[in-house]
Amino acid sequence: MMKKVREYLETNGFSLAEVDIESLLNEFKREMEIGLSTGGGSLQMIPAYISTGRDVPAGKPVVVVDAGGTNLRVAVVKFDASGKPQIERFAKHRMPGTEGEVSVDQFYDTLARHVKPLLDAADDIGFCFSYAADIQPDGDARLRHWTKQVEAPEVVGALIGSGLCDRLSGPGYRPRIVVLNDTVATLLAGRSTGMTRRFEAYVGFILGTGTNTAYMEANEAIGKIPELAKGGRMAINVESGGFAKAPRSKFDETFDATTNDPGHYQFEKMISGGYMGGLGLTVLQCAAADGLFTSGVAAALRNISVLPNKDLDDFCHNPFITTGVLGGMLLSEADRRTILALCTPLYERAALFTAANIAAAVLKTGAGHDPLYPVGVTVDGSTFYRTLTAELKSRVEEHLRNILSGRSVYYQILQVDEAPLLGAAVAGLTFW
Fold this sequence. Notes:
This protein has 15 helices and 13 strands. α2 packs across α12, α8 packs across α10 and α8 crosses α12. The protein is α/β, with parallel strands linked by helices. It has 2 domains: 285 residues, 3-Layer(aba) Sandwich (Hexokinase, domain 1), CATH 3.40.367; 119 residues, ATPase, nucleotide binding domain (Nucleotidyltransferase, domain 5). The longest helix has 33 residues. 49% of the residues are buried. The protein starts with a helix and ends with a helix. A hairpin with a 5-residue loop joins β6 and β7. The strands form 3 sheets. It has a 6-stranded mixed beta sheet with strand order 1-11-10-9-12-13, with helices on both faces.
């Protein structure tokens, strides 16, 4: 049966043995260079106008705001001389616009109401804003469109930082705000650890519901913005979930057609937690239609409309589990083996592609050739740290070693708790 499943996957274009990692790395590099030079290609390569060159001042407080999903979090943060953070006056609120549509005034007034009480601690604000926005050279961000069920249509097209700043200002007083996205914040969170362990460059990587990458790039390489000062470096938001050059199977194409945005974010749909369950369900239903399961199990699989990633991961980790969508089905041992053989490779591929993604960013920094000054790679996201199947985290790390050690590139994986908050704090302390 296992041979039959393997042949079935290969017939549908799914074969890890045929993935050419060098070709994949070259495609990543090529797409990154196209995105930097012309803005074309499948990677947006958005300049963040944020550097890591300035020291993080010890003992200085900064106000931080983290807007992502349905939550709005605020706090005051400062770092000691070793980079250890102190988070004070933390509060979590509902993101305005997630409980019904709000006007532009209601949106900013709500933000200001939560932030203003903290301004007695600091005048500078680091704002992690995890929605589609164009970052401006002055550290502001213009909202492209809302995601994650936020309903505030009048805010689209507005400058987020300036709008909040206007509500917080008074006679003779105006705070400073720098806006960044969550992936750049993840990169900067690693900068705080670099107050004691020195790194030559930084990469931020998120693998959760979605996925994205940020890394440090030389200004000279950013051809689409010729007016940038030469000699500097800045963070680039890769939008790596949009990478469109990874080899796809027929299952990927079938699943992609069922999503809300067919043809977009192809890479994200192959590795991130928000899609792995749906991709796995597609594989199982295709296999059921092609006769790999008994008629009873095939009928049960056809009737499943949603397969959460956690349910698929839990089952592949323990195929005798009795909870979840798959665990509640009447399955023979042969059925369980078939599900494992069909779906475990999805996680194995996700690990390989994740490693290629991170490695491409590390290599693009051009850094890490001196063991004294490796590249600091801050990784965040529940899918990376909590996926059980195929020991995903360990497998990613093994692939990374194989890719980078042979190139004599030194790096260190960093796990930073509360990365969005701490990255926003680093930005607020070092941008000006």
